[in-house]
Amino acid sequence: MAPIPPGIRLLVSFNRDQWYRALTFILTFLLYTSFHLSRKPISIVKSELHKNCSSVSELATIASSSSSSSDSQQPSLPSLHTDMDCSWKPFDKNNYKQLLGAMDYSFLCAYAVGMYLSGIIGERLPIRLYLTVGMLTSGLFTCLFGLGYVYNIHSLGFYIFVQVANGLVQTTGWPSVVTCIGNWFGKGRRGLIMGLWNSHTSVGNILGSLIAGYWVSSNWGLSFIVPGLIIAAMGVVSNLIILMPEKKYERVNGHAEVYLQYKNSKTQSYDTELLLPRDSVCVPVQPVVVVKSESEPSAISFIGALRIPGVIEFSLCLLFAKLVSYTFLFWLPLYITKAAHLDAKKAGDLSTLFDVGGIVGGILAGVISDKLGKRATTCAVMLLLAAPTLYGFSMISEFGQGPTIGMLLVCGGLVNGPYALITTAVSADLGTHKSLKGNARALSTVTAIIDGTGSVGAALGPLLAGLLSAGGWDQVFYMLMTADFLALVLLLRLVTKELSSTKSRPISTVE
Questions:
Q1: Rounded distance, CA 177 to CA 451, Å?
Q2: 145-148 contacts: CB < 8 A, separation 24 or more?
Q3: What CATH code is carried by the domain that includes residue 461?
Q4: Domain coverage including residue 435
Q5: What dihedral do alpha carbons 237, 241, 242, 247 form, nearest 10°?
Q6: H/E stretch holding 260
Q7: Could you give the number of structural domains in the chain?
Q8: Residues 5-21 as b or e (16 or more Cβ within 10 Å = b)
Q9: Which residues face 382 on adjacent strands?
Q10: pLDDT tens, position by position, 424-478
Q11: Are 429 and 510 in contact (CB under 8 A)?
């Protein structure tokens, strides 16, 4: 008999449950990558909606001067180039920063309001259907924004409406994917797993920047249409593949016991049947216990979720942490354009380094918090280091591209590290808190509360940046440093609790 190839031997060494976990990890990673990919174009296109027309005016003046010198008999044509010659109405006025900030605010405010409802609705509907509908409609509204270029639409109301609608439907994504990943993976190395998984945020931002930057100067409508088609296609994929587990792992007497939740005493769902081993697989009798339940656990209420220890502190901390992160997300390319005098494409490409740093920061935050067993302390230390780093970035970014690259990487890691840890590992920990007595249906609501509160900060940050930048970018950075300091203050009680604990345990503040 021919020997089994090593590759086949490796494939069959994993059981069905492990394959489902790997598939869920990869699929949810790609799904939320497409969400962030579709959010990023607006920050790239801003510098195209309102261009720096001074260079255009200078070229026109030179051309006019050369023309007048060659033909002195003809009167020289004055250079009348204004912002209206090269910018997109209605963003061609002097208040363009306020208008662009209003577009950001409309999206993020709708996202924040919708997030509180999304988790509650998501627990009462099939996750697969809920996520698919949300991604398809999000793709539709993202494409609609790009069609404004195709059909030459200059109404501010149109773009505000599209942003509000897109913000509402995008709230279906985060509670759904966190519920999927949180129920498939236990608490053992959740910080590391979630840190790796949460890099989808930065990967989506990077891909969104590159895709939008490719067309921004020639046809910015495609900067939205292509990402819109991508997220819609991923919505179809999610409906075909995504699978929620109907079993839960608990440690009892050192053995991994499997509890299968039956819809009734006689039959089980199709998804449960898929998760059960095939007839040809030998299953040890001792570690398997089947508990039949006549009814599924009820969904937790909004007030009940707020009573879970740590939910309020981490939610308010995320409000300020996400304020900083989303200000960078929506305004960094424009800031680089103005500070470093680069075109829209180069500024967009350079801004991706912030997200590269965010990937490293999110993974480090997860690994360190797993090792120390102190989620709040890990976030607090990174927030403490982030504030002076932001000030350094505002100073160094004017000294050339080299120092700017280094500071972008460092800022990205320190700013996105706490944000990533709270929205993933901490949310999953709190959503499976021991006070819930195994009710996994609370995870979506808890996740929505934490991310919804953070989204309030995400809405305020870009809005304040648009208002404060009129008086100089220094004011924006002072605002960001203040937000980091407030996020740190809100965690002090949990940090004190962790440090006063005599025994280091994982997720000590949320158990």
A1: 13
A2: 145/42, 145/224, 145/228, 146/220, 146/221, 146/222, 146/223, 146/224, 146/225, 146/228, 147/221, 147/225, 148/221
A3: 1.20.1250.20
A4: 14-50+89-246+300-500
A5: 180
A6: strand 255-260
A7: 1
A8: eeeeeeeeeeeebeeeb
A9: none
A10: 778 777 766 565 555 555 677 787 888 888 888 888 888 888 788 878 888 889 9
A11: yes
